[in-house]
Amino acid sequence: MNEPLISIIIPVYNGIEYLPRCFKTLKDQVYSNLELIFVDNGSTDGSINEIKFFCQQINYAYLYYCRKKGPG
User: Fold this and answer.
1) DSSP state, residue 13
2) How many Cβ atoms from other residues are within 10 Å of residue 30's Cβ?
3) Which of 46, 51, 59, 71 sits most deeply, having the most CB atoms within 10 A of its CB?
4) Which residues is 65 bridged to in the sheet?
């Protein structure tokens, strides 16, 4: 029986200092049927580049952009 798909949605706004820990935590997950969705809210601190690099390494990670609209 297949495991259900679990989507982890991570909103990001200028969170570059937190991304390394976030990436490590996500890579350490043992559940195999995951989808990681990063939603950038107009970051200006280089977060986008870090997330793009992470997404290139992990085939189940995606980056989406949105205009700055505020919290969740």
Assistant:
1) S
2) 5
3) 51
4) 40
